[in-house]
Amino acid sequence: MRVADLVGDAVQRPTDASVQRSALAVGVSFAVNGALVATWISRLPAIKHDVGADPSGLGLALLCLAAGSMAAMTLCPRLVRRWGSRAVCRVAMVWTSVSVPLLALAPNVAGLALAFAVVGAGLGVWDVTMNVQGHRVEQLSRRAFMPRFHAAWSGGALTGAGIGALCAHAQVPPDRQFRVVAVTVLCMSLTASLAFVEDEPNGERPERASRSFNHWLLLIGILTMCSTLGEGAASDWLAIFLVDERQHSQALGAAGFTVFALAMVVGRSAGTNIVERVGRVTALRTAGLLTAVGVALSLTVPADPATFVGIALWGLGVALVFPTAMSAAAERGETPAGGIAAVATLGCTGFLVGPPIIGFLAASFSLERALWVVALLGVATSVLASFVRPPSGDVRR
Question: How many domains does the structure of the chain reveal?
Answer without folding.
Answer: 2
